[in-house]
Write a structure and sequence with these properties.
The structure holds two protein chains of two kinds.
Chain A: H1 2-30, H2 37-65, H3 73-95, H4 106-114, H5 126-135, H6 147-162, H7 168-171, H8 174-202, H9 217-222, H10 227-243, H11 247-269, H12 275-289, H13 297-313, H14 328-336
Chain B: H1 3-30, H2 37-89, H3 91-96, H4 103-115, H5 124-136, H6 139-160, H7 177-198, H8 212-216, H9 222-236, H10 242-265, H11 270-284, H12 292-308, H13 323-341
Helix pairs in contact in B: 1-2, 4-5, 6-7, 6-11, 7-10, 7-11, 9-12
Classes of the chains: A mainly alpha, B mainly alpha.
Amino acid sequence: MKAMIALETIIHDLELRIKTAREQLARHESGEKKLTLLSKSSAENNLELHKPLVEHYKALLKEFEKFEKLDCFEHRRLKAAIERKKYYKFNKQEKNKKKVRYKENDENIEAAMIIDELPDETILDEEELYRISFATLQDYIPYHSDAKEELISIQNEFNNLIKNFTDENIRSLELLNYMIPILIFHLNLFKMNLQEEQTYQEQAENIDVSFFPKYHDWWIDELWTSHIAYFSIYKWKKDISLLCRTQKQKQAWDILFNNWIFVKTLLSEKSSLAFEYQYIFDTLINKYIDLTSELNKDVIKKEKEAIKYFIKKENILSLSSEHNVLTPYIHYKKDIH
Amino acid sequence: MNVIEELEKRIKSLTSHIEQSTNQIKDDDSGEKKLSLIVRASAELSIEKNEFLRRKYQFKLKKLKEKDIRSLLDEEKTKEEIRERNYFKYQAKRIQRDKSKTSQEIDHALIIIDELPEGFKLEDKDLFHIGHRSHELFLEIHSDLDDDLIEIKNEFLELVGDHFNDTNIDLKILNYRIPLLILQLQVLVKNIKENIEEENMKDFKGLPRFHDWWVHELWTSHQAYMGFFKWKQIILNMFVTAEQKESFEVIFKNWILVKRILNVKGESAYFYNNAFDQLIHKYSELEDEYNENNLSSLEDIVSKITKKEDFATVSKDHNIITPYMQFKIDKALELENGSKRS
């Protein structure tokens, strides 16, 4: 029942006010922090006013509980929504964007954007996770015999690092909690495969494939708003593609790139509340595959200028050699309709 | 004069008689004023009689008073019950007519009345307070959206069916992301329609169609990027508020990420991709163009637009130091200082 949730938050707010007033008065009595006459009487007034009110609302809540339990499904999901609302609002403030125009139906979209993966929902069981880890790249990259141990070790390492988060919003990153260890495991497989290929075939060319070029954080944030961001990511992706010696490695990189940017985008949307989480992800990626972002502002500025030359030279109108407006998927859709 | 008053008057008079006789006897005893034997006997008899009568009247009075209070209370109780019954019977009507509240406050209180269990009573002021808080928290909207999400999820899982095998089981990871995206876009499209209706604009004919080859060639043909970029701008122009535009930016990014993952997955994800497209079309009127002529003519348009575009640009909010990058720089400094100290 929605009224119960509203009542709970009303009680919670009143209790907070009572607590604050009590603390203020206690500090005043002990001499730790003296209140002015006006503040003192306001604190006393607060107590006098809110104590009976809180009792009244608690009694009402008890009455409600005779009809509906506090841990029922509706109650749980609405409470989860309120939690997310807090962080959604927080992120809005962080971005400091002024609302130029506000319409009442904005409330609906705000509520829809707040919904995230339900925290208490299990997406996949362990067996499925294991199958996923081995299904994604099996056609492109050979798995080592000790790959399973490695996956478990990465999962444990990641879980250990994130277990300290008590924030509901971080804990609720269910999808990412699944995706990240698998992605790190895959990227590691990919890197090892590149190194092995080099060992056998390309040593003579003396290409260092032990690291990936650094990326810039702003590319992720501005991918769909600044053209330079798109071209920078395009070039970065292509540069790594050039390290691939086989078509299968290129295909594997395509998959991994998509997954990596998926994770990075989801995390960057969650803004400062997920900074620590994103940092763990980046640290592990760096540890396993030497992939990291550029933190030197001068280098970033210089490369931003350099990419403008790249764009100038690039044939913007060129299409890929396999270009076709009718993609294989479109053919599939036509066939089944 | 009612019975009680009459009795009280009699008791008073009897008491006075008793006192009088008692005083006569006292005076006789003390020798102050001697009484004759007959008069003394009469005084004693008078006290006895009058006391008997007084006790009788007092008892009667007590009984009468008790009865009177009970009936009074009963009467009051009935009145209170009627008042209370009417208070809750006409609560909704009264709230609707409350001039001191805005129409919104009244609506929010009425929503709370509607969901109260039968027989549950809340006073007007509590209803308004709870209704207001409930609205502040978007509880009504959340509840409805959650219901919609469950339905979309069920429908999606049904459409996807059980086509998973070892090569495409990883798609399951998106099972919950996709219904969410569909729901969010559905709400946004509803917003567009409402805006159009309010501002008497032309009818909404669905979102402009996207081209599957833009997804397919996103990182290989620049024009694919350009197609999406312009397509996104056209849709953004359909929204009127900053909130709507910001939300669409987020939905767009997420949608394209999912579409890319499905595209790269190729044939083994066709069934899944198709279920996604089908539902997003049903709920959000978003679909791709698969008429070859339209595809080709639009390809020419995109090519013309691409020619004109200045690609060495960045957005007006551009900043190379993102908040997260600053966080990493601070963290690196922290680590450096920490290792210096130790």
